[in-house]
Write a structure and sequence with these properties.
seven-stranded mixed β-sheet; five-stranded parallel β-sheet; binds NADP nicotinamide-adenine-dinucleotide phosphate; binds magnesium ion; alpha/beta; Aldehyde Dehydrogenase, Chain A, domain 2; globular; Aldehyde Dehydrogenase, Chain A, domain 1; about 35% helix
């Protein structure tokens, strides 16, 4: 294995930016196109993270063929040995946690505390995979016939194509690649174009931990030039995608036409409900963390705050005061509360939705503009924004903005709160603040979402629990926990007849 050139910090006016490469068939290499693109820090455009290949379908084809070849041997490695690699992976990530997080903040923008958390999620996922390697359980079941047994095994499937977004640059690739590899599949990974350096770091560490070089391949480039050829390649057996619902639909139809297994984790428009008996201090803290953490760029971000009339005005006031105090800036600066949007397009989307909200007649409580503080001069910063007076049919109540914009909706009672919460096409996360156990349990049952938090923010997934949503948020699969191992393995059913006769089920016994 040759290794990439060492990292150089290319901060303003600094050294030559690092040249990053693809990793295909056990070698770091350029794309066959010879083309590259620069990735800049969203907090400071002058800081070039590096140059990355703009790859195409030929690169994809080489990677898939390498992964296909590697599958022949990797599938036969005992699962416990594969698991030991993930123990080492966890140890390596612990050792490098802070560097990984710092580079991630520089590349993606969210504050260091959050990139430390993102890295920790990947560490937890590695240790979970280590444990799971001894638990790839099947069932052993009595037969309907004498002297015969039935059982199931979990089998590796083949080559997994992984396509990831930029908002959790370590955690989401770890959620996919660790269970995929642990189950005995090989991987071709296309990271988001905005966070390719963190993805490379993950692959470097996987190799150092002991994953065979051709079992993991990474290809940089666009969704069109790399993502689609990966999905459509006949030798890719399964696809795991996290991203927007729009792209998810396209992937689903391409994969469906080829009868491929595909897991889609898509968008959200997550509600936090606060009832009259809810603890307002906690509800405020949760709303700030849920709406403005990661600058609102989380699939589980709180984008709707649904408040019962009795506490509405008070909570909106509290929210206004607290939001106005949030400081935007570089995520590596300890004084910063909220980092930049990831890129210009994302900042423009936020700006256009603020205009839509104003045109729809929502009341701007705070924010609603770019941050013009000196520390924000060279990045994609936008003030955390709160709209009140939002009604359920407004676009800012229904569409995913993926930025620091919170829509507040006032409701008269519990039933209206649930109806409003469910009045969207998405169904990822949700939360409710109440001290009433009856209403809490009704909310757990009646909110249409894959995840419901009682007295917590809409964000905060733990690696050992299933993660995913209903409605347009996905297609029924779950990442995380034991459930993702079901996606990345195929059940094989075995019958063993030790009767010495040829027994016929349903016939000989009736
Ligand atoms: P995106 O535009 O859908 O992109 C996601 C990934 O797909 C990127 O790697 C992208 O490549 C690639 N891609 C784009 N178009 C493609 C195509 N036609 N075929 C194949 N691949 C394609 O989403 P994003 O803007 O990066 O991320 C934000 C979205 O992700 C939000 O909607 C958010 O809710 C969702 N998200 C969901 C979850 C969840 O678990 N439910 C978690 C995080 C984010 P490029 O980067 O090169 O464009
Ligand atoms: Mg960038």
């Amino acid at each position: 294995m040759n290794s990439p050139t060492p990292s150089t910090s290319a901060a303003a006016g600094g050294a030559t930016p690092r040249k990053f490469q693809n990793f295909i068939a056990g070698k770091w290499c350029d794309s066959v196109t010879g083309e590259t693109y620069e990735n800049h820090s969203p907090a400071n455009w002058k800081d070039i993270i590096g140059t990355f290949p703009r790859s195409n379908e030929e690169d994809v084809d080489r990677a898939v063929k390498a992964a296909r070849k590697a599958f022949k041997t990797w599938r036969l490695v005992p699962a416990a040995d594969r698991g030991n690699i993930f123990q080492r992976m966890g140890d390596l990530m612990v050792k490098h946690k802070e560097d990984i997080a710092r580079e991630m903040t520089r590349e993606m923008g969210k504050v260091l505390k959050e990139t430390m958390g993102d890295t920790q999620e990947a560490i937890d996922t590695a240790y979970y995979a280590f444990g799971e390697s001894r638990r790839l359980f099947g069932h052993t079941v009595p037969s309907e016939l004498p002297n015969k047994n039935c059982m199931t095994f979990r089998m590796p499937i083949g080559v997994a194509g992984l396509i990831t977004p930029w908002n959790f640059p370590s955690a989401i690739p770890a959620w996919k690649s660790f269970p995929a590899l642990l189950c005995g599949n090989t991987v071709v990974f296309k990271p988001a174009s905005d966070t390719p350096a963190t993805a490379v770091r993950l692959v470097e560490l996987l190799l150092e931990a002991g994953v065979p070089p051709d079992a993991v391949n990474i290809i940089h480039g666009s969704g069109r030039k790399v993502g689609i050829p990966l999905i459509e390649h006949p030798e890719v057996d399964l696809i795991s995608f996290t991203g927007s619902s729009e792209v998810g639909r396209d992937i689903s139809s391409r994969a469906g036409a080829r009868l491929k297994r595909v897991s889609l984790e898509l968008g959200g428009k997550n509600p936090q409900i606060v009832l009259d008996d809810g603890n307002l201090d906690l509800a405020l803290e949760a709303a700030l963390w849920g709406a403005f953490g990661t600058t609102g760029q989380r699939c589980t971000a709180t984008s709707r705050l649904i408040i019962q009339a009795g506490v509405h005005d008070k909570l909106v006031d509290m929210l206004k005061n607290a939001t106005n105090k949030l400081r935007c800036g570089d995520g590596l600066d300890p004084k910063t509360d909220v980092g930049p949007l990831v890129n210009e397009a994302q900042r423009d989307t936020v700006e256009s939705y603020v205009k839509i909200g104003l045109d729809e007649g929502a009341k701007l409580v705070c924010g609603g503009e770019r941050d013009t503080s000196p520390q924000c001069a060279n990045g994609w910063f936008y003030r955390p924004t709160v709209f009140a007076g939002v009604t359920p049919e407004m676009r800012i109540a229904k569409e995913e903005i993926f930025g620091p914009v919170l829509s507040v909706l006032k409701v008269k009672d519990f039933d209206e709160a649930i109806a409003v919460a469910n009045n969207v096409d998405y169904g990822l996360s949700s939360s409710i603040f109440t001290q009433d156990v009856n209403r809490a349990f009704r909310a757990m049952r009646d909110i249409e979402a894959g995840i419901t938090y009682i007295n917590g923010a809409t964000i905060g997934a733990e690696c050992h629990m299933p993660f995913g949503g209903v409605k347009d948020t996905g297609n029924g699969h779950r990442e995380g926990g034991w459930t993702v191992y079901e996606f990345f393995s195929e059940i094989k059913t075995i019958y063993v007849d030790f009767s010495g006769t040829l027994q016929k089920a349903q016939i000989d016994n009736y």
